[in-house]
Design brief:
The protein has 968 residues and is an all-alpha fold. The chain has 55 helices and two strands. α33 packs antiparallel against α34 and α50 runs parallel beside α52.
Amino acid sequence: MSRKTTSTLHEAASTSPANVEDHFDSLNSDLDVLSTPGSQDSTPIPVIAVAEELEHEEVIDTSKETRRLLLNYDEFHDAIKHGDFDSVKEMLDDGANIERTTDNGGTPLIIAIYKHHIDIIALLLKRGADVNWPVIDSPPIFHAVTQKEHAPQIIQLLLDYGGMLEAVAGPTHMNALHWAAVNGMIHAADFLISKGLDISRTCSRGKTPLIHAAEKGHLTIVKLLLAKGADLHGRSANDGSALMWASSQAQDEVVDYLLNEGSRVDDCDEDGLTALSVSSKLGSMAIVQLLIEKGANVNTLSTSPKHWTPAMFAANAGRAGVLQALLSHGADPKVSSGDGVTILELAIKSGHLNTVKILLEALGGPEYPKDSVALQIAIAQSKATVTSLMTTVPIMYGYIDSKPTGSEKLDWIKWVLDQGGELVKAGAMTNMLHAALAHQDVSMTAELLKLGVDANTIFCTGNTPLHIAVYVRNLELIKLLLEAGADPAKPSQDPKGLKLTPLHEAIIDWKDGCVNAMSVIDLLLRSRRCRIMEGENAQSTAFACVVRKLNHWNDKVVLEADEIVRSMLGWTDDRSDDGSTPMHVAVHYKQKGLIDALRRVGADINAKNNNGHSPLLVASRSDVEMVNFLITRCADVSAVNNHGQGALQIAAACGQVEVLEFLLGSDLADEAPLNIDAVDDAGHTPLIAAILTNHEGAALYLLERGASTHYRTSDTGRCAMHLAAQANMQRTVEKILEDSSIDNINVEDYRRYTPLTLACIYSAPAVISKLLSHGADPNIANDTTGDRPLHIALKRRSRMSPMDARHGDPALDLLNYHRIDITARDADGRTPLHLASEFHNFAATKLLLSKGVSPHYEDNRGRTPLCLCSRPDIAQALIDHGADVNHGDENGWTPLHYAVSRCWVKAFAVLRRARANMDARTRDDGLSVKERLERFGTWEDWVNAEWEYICDDVRREKMREVEMEDEL
């Protein structure tokens, strides 16, 4: 399809009435068989067939059309580029498509604009070029804006021919003045302001033209806008001012000008960042100096990151010059962030030597050592660098220290740290510890711990020292770290989001044959400082990892797991993030022996997690044997969760018929019998819970046991009959209908939907037949929408799944019902015949016509069924029954106008054979059918556009169905 097709089909669509909706079942079903000779297949009518049909009817001027088809559009575009007015005019006279695009999408009008050919621009506009059609997502006025001194004249021409001054474009919905500001187009900006464009208008990101100009560094535009009254202090969506945006892009000239004009130097955005914060991070020395001179607060604190000063941003980014300037003007070198990290620590972790040296001097004085080995180790960004330094230093130390030394001596570590001073000691020790652990150097680790390294430090990998020791399964290192205070319950801070404790790591790594794996776990547990339930939920905890191995195929692993579990029994009060206890884990994995073991050490068998689920409620989801076991262990059978759901509701919602049978049929000793109609906070009984989750077996069992069908849900007011009809549960509906106490089959929910209406909405033909046979009224109109069940059935897709199709078509079932009103109108005045035509139901159309329904009925807008018909077989059936092919609606739109505007190629051919008038004009836009066709370009363009319109109709149909179901 040519690019022209896209533009013209949208243009044509824009001229059709806004409420015309053509809904298609699917892409394939909309290429239905055309009921004419020679086209009895499922393919679109060939272009040549349409052309021959039209030529036969003398619809077009063949000679002019031939000339148009023979045009060389490369020559046409070249003539425009070179300003050949006469050639352009001649080709337009010969029928050249005025919107025909080049290979890169440029229209003739856009080409003329970029070449500044004013006379050709005027000619194209006079001949009907679309003055607002976007090219590269921007309307012509945007392209005109960038034409420098030519912009005012071109913009004025576009406006004279209907160009939209307020047009917006792009993902941020900028207008022409925003675009001029972004591109620094002073001529266009001045002209647009003179034409009345609001200088305070914002784009979707909240940026004014002034902010755009400041951000891009266009000082002349900034001056113009301020001279015209732009708000100097206006804010964007993130609360940034023009000064901040200029600072963020290092536009020093603009920053200087804005400051001199009175911009507030300490305004901050939603993250608490000021212009000084931003420029410090970027390293914009000139702007930093300007801001400081204007009194910017050098110790202002951001909110995200929490409590960062401009000096912190500079240090973290390695902006040494900026950092020096800030410190010399009073920036506090000792301040800490909200996470307790100092400026020096930020600089060291980032590995920026120059900024570290500046901070060392600021904190320790000019004599503080700034070239030490300790400093090099502290700022090293890799273990390889640290290892290299640590390998070299002992050799060097042997020559410096007069005492004899050997490889077993570690005095050099203290010497290195002392040489670096206290300010870099922590950073150096952290990196040295990381390297020592990686090489499993127990002696060096012990020495570093003795010298004061933090045993719970977080390395750049997000792991603690204990994580590394556990990973390499080095018992000496683990014991050493635990004795030094390492926390075995501290989770890692993995950048990928995983947060595992050392115990978790040990259990995950534990497998049959792993050396020291069991010993590592035992060592961690014996510290008595572990958390066995650390994790998001019961299944993600270390305890669950071990319990899962109780079902392992390897007997040795099972024995080891049992041993570990026994050693974990002392943590019965530990909970996961969702409040689950070890008892919940034992129930989830069906470990009866573990449940008894936990009870013996005092675990609460009725403990609830954060959602209020007790172990019994957890078991009710899946395991009748576990439910029975828990009840024998004094579990509270009447417990409910935070939503008021008890064991019956949960079992029903999970389809657990055996659990329901046990709970309703067992003698629960001192417990009162469970209420089969217990209602939760949402008004759901166990029966409603089973139906809502589509567990028909559970629903039928509850009905057999006498569950009431009269309870209603709190939100929609639907009872079991509504919900079963909606879910297409035929057997459940039959069972409910057997109940002699059902006194009103037409009961309405809060939205005034009856069970029959819901069955039509959800295309449940078997349920519809059953409801009708028991006396459901098909003529009840919804007070809100005006729709009756028949209207809804006809608006649904006529094609169903093979399983549903076995039970018939809901619309046909209703039409064959003796009490149905086949001429009832919906809120838009459409009869069932209108809807059958519009929604492609050929069988329903034939049935309605056979019952004598008139094809001349008009809806509220004067449209007959033929106006809404896209399928050729339906169109032919309507015409065969006397439909007027030239009937005009309230705006004079005939069926042929609708067919052309929506590219109903096959329906168009049927209408033309029936002598539909091509010269009929509408009253709203005054176009004839021929003229509407010409808006698509060539005949080939129009025919080829059919598929895109079908896709568009299918998308809209799907959206309509989703919206209807979401509403319900």
